Amino acid sequence: MAVLFSVAFSNELFANPDFELLIRIREHKFVHDYGFAANSGNITKIKTYNEGSKDIPWDNFIRTSLPWTVWTERNPSEAPNFKKVLADKEFFSEIAISPDFHWVALSVGNPDSVINHKHKEISLVSTSDFKEKKRIKLIKGRYVGDLAWRSDSSKLLVLEKTERVGLNPLELLSAFAGHPVPHNSFYLAIFDAIRGEFSEATSPFAEDIEYASGWFAQSKPN
């Protein structure tokens, strides 16, 4: 499995060394950065930037997972093995490889979600035999925003997303014209790879944000 693409976690993500991972939420006016503290499990808002600000550290952070299309371009010899995991007409998007190279987590979509890319399941595949060992289904109404492994490969972090249609007068007019305004909320779920347990947050850490997208990021390695 030496061809698998992976990036090690940096210990210098933030000035606060307790933050292991960055969660970035982007909307049409602002960019919000949150820090995840692995020891406590807490998520803290670090800073909010105006969209377009030159202070946003875009070049200092990279995504922890890769889109399926990008990963297959880097690993063409391995791609057919993962295709065999798919059920008929299923597809993958994000792909996150555990730092110990034992697991690959894939966000799975079905034919009903091809257009809106709402992946509602996660496939955990063993790299030893390229077989699915566990299928995780999210709470109804949530879908996968991104995936990331802890540096010790003990836990898979899942950025979950929900969406509702805006219902104020202007938003109703927009929806009637065929352009509904999405309002998104974000949750953090954790799969314990050692115990095989999956837990989902009851409350969002970022709530009711228009046109929002979110992803996990980490510092570039030195």
Helices, by number, come to 3
Order of helices and strands: EEEEEHHEEEEEEHEEEE
Structural class: mainly beta
How much is the average pLDDT?
82
Architecture overview:
By secondary structure, the protein is mostly beta strands. Helices cover 9% and strands 45% of the residues. The chain has 3 helices and 15 strands. The strands form 3 sheets. The chain has a 5-stranded antiparallel β-sheet, with no helix packed on it. The protein has a 5-stranded antiparallel β-sheet with strand order 5-6-7-8-9. Strands 10, 11, 12, 13 and 14 form a 5-stranded antiparallel β-sheet that branches.
Q: How are the SSEs placed, and which strands pair?
A:
Elements (H helix, E strand, L loop, with lengths): L18 E8 L3 E8 L5 E8 L10 E3 L2 E2 H7 L4 H5 L7 E7 L5 E7 L11 E6 L4 E7 L5 E7 L5 E11 L3 H8 L5 E11 L4 E4 L5 E5 L2 E7 L3
Describe this structure in a few short sentences:
The chain has 222 residues and is mainly beta. The protein contains three helices and 15 strands. It has a five-stranded antiparallel β-sheet, with no helix packed on it. It has a five-stranded antiparallel β-sheet with strand order 5-6-7-8-9. Strands 10, 11, 12, 13 and 14 form a five-stranded antiparallel β-sheet that branches.
